[in-house]
Structures are given as C-alpha cells and as structure tokens.
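Good morning C.,

I know you're traveling, so I'll keep this short. The sequence:
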Amino acid sequence: ERWRESGSATEFDQLKHLLSELVFKNTESPLREYNFMLLGFVEMEKGQALPTLQTFEAFLKEYPKSPEVPQVRKALAEGYLLLSKFNEALGQYEATIKDFPNTTFAQEATYRIGDVHFGRGDFNQAVKSYEAAIKQFPKQESVYPNADFNTAEARFWLKDYKKSLEDY
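The tokens, ready to paste straight into the viewer:
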C-alpha cells in the first residue's frame, strides 16, 4: 500500500525484494503460492513485462495445477502483448480455452484472441475472431465491448467503411 500511495521507486524495490524473499527463500511456506502470484502482479502493475513473464512462467512450472492458472495465463498473454510477442500471447489464450473449456476464463480468452490479431494489425483475422467469439458467446458481448469497437475499427482500416459505420 505504501508503494501504491507514494509511487516511490524505493518503495517498489523494497516491496519486490520482500516478495522475492518470501517466494524464493521460504519455499515451504503455505503462503508461497499467493506471494508468488502477488510478485508477478506487482511487476505487471509496474509495467515490467519481462520480469512479469519470468515470474509467471516460473509460477506455472511450480504450480501447474493451481486454480489460479487461468489468471496467470491471462497475465502472461498481456505481458507478451506488451512486448509485441503475438504468437506467445495467442498460445496462452488457446491453452486457456483448451484446458478450461466451459468457463468464463475460456470465454474471455475467446474474445481476447481477436485483440491479439487486432494488435498485430491482422484486421481480417481480428474481424473473424471477434465475430466467432460473439457468435459463440453472445451474452459476453456486453462484457467485452472492445470486440465491437475493434471490429468497427478493423473494418475501417480494411476500407469497408459502410460495415465499419454499421458496427459503430
């Protein structure tokens, strides 16, 4: 909380050091899994993509059966997107869909696949992915409205102005 309130780099470094000690020196602690995740999310919140990826990849190796795996994969995908590693991000979402079918995690991952294609500038595939997600999970469309907005923008960049305007 001190780091969030102050935004101080020193406070962040102290927090990260403390969490790292809790994770890597107290390997038998019942709170290790929680602290491991907390370390990754703190790094992510700070915008440190590479440390975030390293922490969450280590978490998955250490806790492959954790109930938090879908959240960790989502964080990994977001970290990969920050580094423009689109195939890796896509892989995380696809693994979530495969390993956690019929869950809200799989539904979100289905929508986020469109975001990956949109981010890489593959607008045709982005439109296809968003349309497939909306068709498969129509109730989630209001939860992920970026699918509609990004579809409209993708169609604009594809010079399909009429459909773009209709989507908007």
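Safe travels,
E.
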